[in-house]
Write a structure and sequence with these properties.
Chain lengths: ~190, ~425
């Protein structure tokens, strides 16, 4: 009887101690092989390719994602895009609303809610973000900000411009055109 | 304010009226001039900092430290007004810079003469930039008073000393009376034996010990697999407080796929580089943490270029919120369709320097939310058809997630 009690006390003691997972330790799992199946997890690693997260095979295009914007990330590409690229997105209420929401997620912290360049980023490097409704200073294509064409804006989002990085991996083409639509319809006209 | 007015009155008394007016006029012109004077620092900050730094190395364009010594004022004016015209005119220096900086064109700034003069004066004497180093401001606060256990220990120590003092007093009193004395352990032993001599007391003590052991065992069992408050050290001391809190960057900016896929993606390093190609020094950790991104992908913060042929290595973040593989969870279902805020499950991430798991992530926790949360069907295309049918079926009742199958086993376990 005493031995049984001793055993019980020992077991409970072990459980008690083993469950003392600190904040930097996730603790224990009941059935690790059900928690972690042999299938590959998104951000895990494997012995064949290393990373589970892979890039698309070079030269392939995902179904439904054939680009209609064929300009390279140079100054020539930027100017050519401004001259010839057309926004394929229909100007309607839904697309504008989508554009506004996307602008809020991806642009607002630098460009500001009204496009005045007064976003919430408080680093000195991002204190000179230009106004979308600025009509004085001539920018890259030789026109002020409020006269930038859809192609210019789309090119800048895709390849970046000055201190702004390229955002093509975060926002897909459709979404970029929606943002362009919103900027052109709403923000560029605010000062006019 | 008071002494100033008195001074003026004194002046009026002492000087004659004419000189007083002259003085006022001079004062006014001065004040007018200072308000109308273009502020070079302001102009610089509003127009130049997107591409240039002073003394901080090259950004998009060159470092402007000592630029007024390197180039003549006349040349600078021409360049700022229209760099492309200067390049087209065949100026060798201009062409060299254009080539060096990957043919990126500088915006034309047609400043007025006064503004331009003020800007050049500012560039000639730029303020000494304060070096931002990881300082006490950024260090985590350690001195938050004593922790609970320390306080308890001190109380226990005080009580123990009190016991010893009292026994020694009692013993010395007994000694002076010529009675037998006993030490503290002896007293304790005798008292305990006396207490346990009673069988009912024995039962109570036994029960008490059993309950305590069972309670600990139960809590320990319930805690297995639950990782609330898990707060691992990450390979880079990334602070959500600085990014999502102080700078108010939207969660979706970095976790781009939360809207559209099962996973809320860990941002790849190129998303970091959208800003950190320019920002090479952080507010609390200086360059040490940001340098880790550069080490992973091969970026030279001095020249602001990616190193060719660099062997990139992944940043191995530690996963905090981990659902077992036997349960299916989809972010877009909750973020886009359910229109939940990230904070509802993840807590106030924008206030965390180091992220920790806020919710239990147990099945009970999921079910509870599905039972209570009303589905936001209005204005949500996903539910257009279903909404009408549900309204008919549950007329007047709250339509919660469980009413449309949110508790079905197969929704999450398959």
């Amino acid at each position: 009887m005493n031995k049984l009690l001793l055993k019980l006390a020992f077991i409970s003691g072990v459980i008690f101690l083993s469950s003392c997972g600190g904040d930097s330790d996730p603790g224990y799992e009941f059935m690790p092989n059900m928690y972690r199946s042999p299938s590959l997890e998104t951000y895990g690693e494997n012995t064949i390719t290393g990373l589970n997260a892979l890039q698309p095979v070079e030269g392939t295009v995902a179904r439904g994602h054939l680009s209609t914007f064929n300009y390279d990330g140079t100054l020539e590409g930027y100017l050519a895009a401004g001259n010839t690229a057309v926004n394929p997105i229909e100007n309607n209420e839904k697309n504008l609303a989508d554009g506004k929401a996307l602008y809020g997620m991806f642009c607002e912290h630098c460009h500001g809610a009204t496009g005045a360049g007064d976003g919430t980023i408080n680093h000195a490097i991002y204190s000179a973000v230009p106004h979308y409704n600025d009509e004085k200073l001539n920018r890259r294509p030789g026109v002020p900000m409020n006269e930038l064409e859809a192609g210019h804006i789309f090119h800048a989002i895709t390849y970046g411009l000055n201190a702004m990085g390229p955002h093509a991996t975060q926002i897909n083409e459709d979404e970029r055109w929606k943002i362009t639509l919103y900027v052109q319809e709403e923000l560029q006209n605010l000062g006019k | 304010m008071q002494p100033k007015i008195e001074d003026i009155f004194n002046m009026i008394r002492i000087n004659n009226f004419k000189s007083c007016i002259l003085l006022l006029a001079v004062v006014f012109t001065f004040s007018f001039q200072t308000s109308a004077q273009p502020d070079g620092a302001q102009i610089y900050k509003a127009n130049c900092t997107a591409c240039h730094m002073i003394g901080g190395g090259r950004l998009v364009g060159p470092d402007l430290q000592g630029i007024t010594e390197k180039r003549t004022k006349d040349w600078l004016k021409k360049w700022i007004n229209s760099s492309s015209e200067l390049i087209a005119s065949g100026d060798a220096d201009a062409i060299a810079i254009f080539e060096e900086y990957n043919k990126s064109v500088m915006t034309d700034f047609y400043f007025s003469d006064e503004d331009m003069a003020a800007l050049l004066v500012y560039l000639e004497n730029p303020p000494v930039e304060e070096v931002q180093v990881a300082s006490a401001a950024g260090a985590t606060e350690h001195d938050k008073g004593m922790s609970g256990s320390t306080q308890m220990m001190i109380v226990a120590l005080v009580l123990l000393t009190l016991v010893f003092i009292l026994t020694s007093v009692k013993n010395s009193l007994k000694e002076s009376l010529g009675q037998e004395t006993e030490t503290v352990p002896e007293t304790l032993k005798n008292q305990t034996e006396l207490f346990l001599a009673n069988n009912i007391n024995k039962l109570f003590v036994g029960l008490f010990i059993m309950i305590v052991v069972l309670k600990f065992a139960f809590d320990a069992m319930m805690g297995v697999g639950v990782t609330t408050n898990y707060q691992p050290v990450q390979p880079i001391a990334f602070s959500h407080k600085i990014h999502a809190g102080d700078n108010s960057i939207d969660c979706n900016y970095c976790h781009t796929s939360a809207r559209t896929s099962k996973h809320s993606a860990i941002p790849s390093a190129n998303i970091c580089m959208n800003c950190h190609a320019s920002i090479v020094s952080g507010t609390t950790t200086g360059t040490t943490e940001i340098q880790k991104i550069y080490d992973a992908i091969g970026y030279d913060p001095e020249t602001r270029t990616y190193i060719e042929g660099y062997e990139q290595k992944p940043i191995e973040w530690v996963k905090i919120h981990n659902l077992p593989d036997l349960a299916y969870f989809n972010h877009s279902q909750h973020v886009t369709v359910g229109q939940l805020e990230c904070q509802e499950c993840h807590g106030a991430i924008e206030e965390m320097d180091v992220v920790k798991q806020e919710s239990e992530l147990t099945m009970g926790w999921c079910i509870e939310c599905h039972r209570e949360t009303e589905v936001k069907m209005e204005g949500n295309d996903y539910y257009t058809q279903m909404h009408e049918k549900m309204k008919e079926k549950y007329a007047g009742e709250k339509i919660t997630v469980d009413k449309m199958g949110g508790l079905e086993c197969g929704k999450c376990h398959y």
